[in-house]
Write a structure and sequence with these properties.
Layout (H helix, E strand, L loop, with lengths): L1 E6 L4 E6 L2 H29 L5 H45 L7 H5 L17 H32 L2 H7 L14 E4 L2 E4 L6 E4 L2 E4 L5 E3 L4 E9 L4 E9 L2 E11 L6 E2 L4 E5 L9 E8 L2 E3 L11 H29 L1
Antiparallel strand pairs: 1-2, 3-6, 4-5, 6-13, 7-12, 8-9, 8-11, 9-10, 10-12, 10-13, 13-14
Helix pairs in contact: 2-4
C-alpha cells in the first residue's frame, strides 16, 4: 500500500510506496496498542467495576460446588461421630460391663495416628487447611469405627456364651441358709476392727457358725488359689468364675479342692473354721468384680428357703456322682 504526496515541482499527486520496515513497525505499534487497550479494558472490568472474567466466574462456581460438598461431608461426619460416641459409651458401660469385660482404654479408642504426617502433601495448596482437616478427621473416624467393630465382635463372641455366664455369676449363699446354724455378724463396709477397735473397711461378710459347716462354691469356675495365711485369712480358697468375677472363702477349717480344679455351683469346697486371724469360728466371704471388692449381699439372698438350697446341693451331688461313676466305668473298660 502506498502513500499519496504532492510533487511541488510538477504539481502532480504521486504515490510513494512505504518501506517494509515502516510497515512492520506500524503493524507492531497497532498490535501493541490493541493489547494495551484489551488489558486496560480487562482491568477496568475486574478491578474498577468488580466484574469477574468468564474463566474466573467458572472457577468460582466450581469452587462453590466443592465447598458445598465439603459442608455436606462435614455435616455427615458430625452425625457419624456423634453416633459412634454414643455406641462407645453403651459398649463400655453396658455391653462390656454386663459380660465382665474391661473397658477399652481411651488412647486405643481415640486411634491416634502419630508418626509422619500422611497429608503433608496438602500443605502447599492454597486453602488446603479445610481439606486436610476433613481428611484427617475422616481417617481418624475410620480407625475408631474399626476399633469399635472389633470390640463388638468380642462382645458377640461372649454373648453366645450367655448361658455359661448365668451359671458362673456367684448368685447363691456360700452356706446352707438355715438361720438356726449361722448368723451374719459383720456386713460389708466400715466397722470397728475386733482386735484393735479401729475403724476399717470390711471387704466381705462374716457368717458366724460352728466349725465344720460345709462351704459351697457360689458359681461355676476354676480354683485359682489355695493358701494358708496365719496372720490373715487362714485357710483360704479363691475361685475365678470368669466374666470379671472372683469369690474368696476364708478362715476355713479344711479344704477339699486344689488349685486349677474346675468346680460347679453347689460343689463343697471345704468346711468353716477359725483359722488365721479370727476372733471366733466363722466364714469370711468376698465377691470381687473386675478387681474391686463389692458387697456380697448384692449377689445372694439369705432368705432363700433352705429346702430349695438343699435341693440344689443334692442335685449337684447327684451330677458329681454320675460323672464319677462314668469315669470309673471308663477306667475299668480300659483295664
Amino acid at each position: 500500500m502506498g502513500k499519496y504526496i504532492l510533487n511541488t515541482e510538477t504539481l502532480l499527486v504521486e504515490i510513494r510506496e512505504a518501506s517494509l520496515k515502516h510497515r512492520v513497525l506500524k503493524g507492531a505499534l497497532l498490535l501493541a496498542g490493541s493489547l494495551a487497550m484489551a488489558f486496560f479494558y480487562l482491568w477496568l472490568l475486574s478491578s474498577v467495576l468488580g466484574i469477574d472474567l468468564p474463566k474466573t466466574k467458572l472457577l468460582k462456581m466450581e469452587s462453590a460446588r466443592w465447598a458445598s460438598r465439603m459442608d455436606l461431608l462435614d455435616s455427615r461426619l458430625d452425625r457419624y461421630e456423634e453416633a459412634l460416641g454414643t455406641l462407645q459409651v453403651r459398649d463400655d458401660d453396658i455391653y462390656r460391663s454386663v459380660f465382665g469385660m474391661n473397658e477399652i482404654p481411651a488412647e486405643v479408642r481415640s486411634a491416634g495416628a502419630g508418626g509422619v504426617d500422611k497429608y503433608a502433601y496438602l500443605d502447599g495448596l492454597e486453602g488446603d487447611a479445610r481439606l486436610k482437616n476433613t481428611l484427617v478427621r475422616l481417617d481418624r473416624l475410620s480407625r475408631m469405627a474399626y476399633v469399635q467393630s472389633k470390640s463388638l465382635d468380642e462382645v458377640a463372641a461372649l454373648s453366645r456364651k450367655a448361658g455359661d455366664m448365668a451359671s458362673c455369676i456367684p448368685a447363691i449363699p456360700p452356706i446352707l441358709p438355715d438361720p438356726s446354724k449361722y448368723s451374719l455378724t459383720s456386713p460389708f463396709g466400715y466397722r470397728a476392727d475386733p482386735f484393735d477397735n479401729n475403724s476399717k473397711m470390711h471387704t466381705g461378710v462374716d457368717l458366724a457358725m460352728k466349725i465344720g459347716n460345709p462351704v459351697y462354691a457360689t458359681g461355676d469356675g476354676v480354683v485359682s488359689q489355695v493358701v494358708f495365711d496365719f496372720f490373715g485369712y487362714g485357710n483360704c480358697v479363691t475361685i475365678d468364675h470368669g466374666f470379671g468375677y472372683q469369690t474368696l472363702y476364708a478362715h476355713l477349717n479344711s479344704i477339699s479342692v486344689r488349685e486349677g480344679m474346675a468346680v460347679k455351683r453347689g460343689d463343697c469346697i471345704g468346711e468353716s473354721g477359725k483359722s488365721g486371724r479370727a476372733s471366733g469360728p466363722h466364714l469370711h466371704y468376698e465377691v470381687i468384680y473386675k478387681g474391686e471388692k463389692v458387697n456380697p449381699e448384692n449377689y445372694f439372698d439369705l432368705s432363700i428357703p433352705k429346702e430349695e438350697y438343699a435341693s440344689l446341693i443334692r442335685k449337684r451331688e447327684g451330677e458329681s456322682d454320675a460323672v464319677l461313676t462314668r469315669r470309673n466305668f471308663s477306667l475299668r473298660r480300659r483295664q
